[in-house]
Design a protein that fits this description.
Elements: H1 3-14, E1 20-24, E2 37-42, E3 45-52, E4 60-64, E5 74-77, E6 83-86, E7 89-90, E8 98-102, E9 105-108
Parallel strand pairs: 1-2
Antiparallel strand pairs: 2-3, 3-4, 5-6, 7-8, 8-9
């Protein structure tokens, strides 16, 4: 295991857990928080979820959560408000990160 992978996995375990911020509207803000996820909700319907890539590249990841979308993601919150996403997030372009978000923590796929 190289140092970069080791550090990324260690930081994912010790860093504060990510939280979910809900905003009103059907689109994400231009600037997203460094760690937390943003859920765009309009009229009680969830539209999309946004976050900055946890690898550190700074890219915005936008995931559709509406029922009609393909692909689409499901988001669940535990009793402490920590988000879990399914399925995993796999970036096909850019940094090509592949990870799960469970209980507010990033779990990297190797």
């Amino acid at each position: 295991m190289n140092f970069t992978r080791w550090w990324r996995n260690t930081w994912a375990r010790i860093a504060p857990r990510r939280r979910l911020i809900i905003i009103e509207g059907d689109s994400l803000p231009k600037r997203l928080p460094r760690r937390n996820l943003v859920l765009a909700r309009e009229g009680g319907e969830d539209w999309c979820l946004g976050m900055r890539c946890p690898c550190g590249c700074g890219d915005t990841i936008e995931l559709l959560v509406i029922d009609e979308a393909k692909p689409r993601w499901d988001i669940a919150l535990d009793g402490n408000g920590r988000p879990t996403l399914s399925p995993s997030v796999w970036r096909k372009k850019g940094c090509r990160s592949h990870f799960w978000l469970r209980g507010g923590r990033v779990e990297w796929c190797d």
